[in-house]
Amino acid sequence: MAATLATPIPHTELDPDRCGSEEESRGAEAAEEGSQQQTGPAAAVSHNRLSKLPLARIKALMKTDPDVSLASQESVFIIAKATELFVEMIAKDALVYAQQGKRKTLQRKDLDNAIEAIDEFAFLEGTLD
Length: 129
Description:
Layout: H1 11-14, H2 22-35, H3 55-63, H4 73-100, H5 108-117
Helix pairs in contact: 3-4, 4-5
């Protein structure tokens, strides 16, 4: 079995009042990655990624819109982050309905219930039909 290193995140990184630029945070992350050696399957995936979704694929999806000719890296990142937050929010709301049914696995009916019950998801009504 391969051992992995777990490192605690310093309190300064979690402080919302700390105002650092994006370049500073990326530089600090790169320095941390260079100073730590990871082993096992976790070594292939960076734990400090800012986005969990593949930015190249999101950019390609954005370019399928005929109105979009160019997409900046910043816009692609914002779309990726907004998508992550949206998926997280709807999944958490659907999880409530799964837990009410004493299940751990989300089903389509859980998503349907979350869409019907929460006004923020009204634009999704009928999309899963």
